[in-house]
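Bumping my old thread because nobody answered last time. Still need a sequence for this structure:
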């Protein structure tokens, strides 16, 4: 048990500074990116709106369930079906917070490949979705995301717009350290603990014999598609799979499929856009994830890239005191009674949920 605690704590300390940086960036995006602006850019048909939806959605701090209200709001505000699918995929598959923690735990190569693959899968699926014949549908009710949705409030509409840039930024940061962190805490803790357990009890390279190729990627799809796990929370688990010998491409398949799909998302997507679009959604994500996974493994092999060596070098840039301080700050804000006492010092602060 001592080894389990040591390994789990080491993963948390490595990830904490980058997670804190990602939360700060997510809060600022939440404060300054309005849904009206996104709707204006995502209307119309063709490749352009689909690509813009992927690029706009990629850095946003929303997970697979939380993105649904915003995505469906965009759809009812005039965004094309292809743009809606593209936004619905790119947004939960990656984000500033998940890219930051990916850099910390898996190095710069995976931190670059992950958002590129997310944008590709979103554009590919969005273009396919635009080819499905339209049919008139009655507007569905706003999705009920009680019990574990990430950032379920529409972007730019969580609070009334503050009067000054400073108060608006503070409002966004408060949102990140309350709503977003609350949604991440449970699954992030599970991911870090499972990662520590895998590293402790399975020998290195234990999964190398079956951890690459299309069959292994299909297994990752089977695990990831029905699972509810955020992009940030899935990263520690993915990093532990890398240490155990699973190829970077196979791990990437899990990182793409897990956050973009879950049972709730699939059910609401079927109700809102219909069965054919749901089939295209699943096919597009699966095909794009496997294609990106195979391409990633080919790049790693061709250029002789050592992902775990990069991750080890990345950790050397973070001083121990910064990791400890970041871990303590995240832990304090994750404990709601402590956080509420701190925020209540500001009479205008919005309390955490």
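Sorry it took so long. Here it is:
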């Amino acid at each position: 048990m001592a080894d389990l605690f040591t390994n789990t704590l080491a993963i948390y300390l490595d990830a904490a500074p980058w997670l804190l940086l990602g939360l700060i960036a997510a809060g600022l995006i939440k404060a300054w990116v309005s849904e009206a602006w996104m709707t204006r850019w995502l209307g119309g048909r063709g490749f352009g709106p689909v690509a813009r939806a992927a690029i706009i959605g990629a850095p946003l701090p929303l997970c697979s369930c939380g993105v649904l209200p915003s995505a469906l709001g965009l759809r009812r505000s005039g965004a094309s079906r292809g743009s809606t699918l593209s936004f619905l995929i790119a947004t939960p598959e990656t984000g500033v917070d998940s890219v930051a923690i990916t850099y910390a735990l898996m190095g710069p190569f995976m931190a670059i490949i992950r958002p590129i693959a997310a944008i590709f899968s979103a554009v590919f699926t969005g273009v396919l979705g635009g080819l499905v014949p339209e049919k008139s549908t009655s507007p569905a009710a706003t999705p009920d995301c009680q019990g574990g949705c990430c950032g379920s409030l529409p972007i730019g509409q969580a609070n009334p717009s503050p009067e000054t840039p400073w108060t608006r930024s503070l409002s966004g940061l408060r949102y990140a350290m309350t709503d977003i962190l609350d949604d991440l805490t449970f699954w992030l803790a599970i991911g870090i603990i499972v990662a520590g357990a895998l590293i402790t009890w399975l020998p290195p390279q234990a999964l190398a014999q079956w951890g690459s190729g299309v069959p292994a990627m299909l297994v990752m799809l089977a695990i990831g598609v029905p699972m509810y796990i955020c992009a940030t929370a899935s990263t520690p688990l993915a990093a532990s799979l890398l240490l155990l010998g699973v190829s970077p491409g196979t791990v990437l398949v899990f990182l793409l499929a897990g956050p973009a799909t879950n049972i709730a998302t699939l059910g609401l997507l079927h109700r809102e856009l219909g069965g054919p679009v749901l089939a295209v959604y699943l096919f597009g994500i699966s095909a794009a994830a496997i294609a990106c996974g195979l391409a990633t493994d080919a790049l790693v092999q061709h250029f002789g890239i050592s992902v775990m060596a990069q991750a080890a070098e990345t950790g050397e840039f973070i001083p121990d005191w910064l990791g400890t301080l970041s871990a303590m700050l995240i832990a304090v804000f994750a404990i709601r009674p402590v956080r509420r006492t701190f925020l209540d010092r500001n009479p205008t602060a919005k309390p955490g949920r």
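Residues 2-343 form one domain. Let me know if any region looks off to you.
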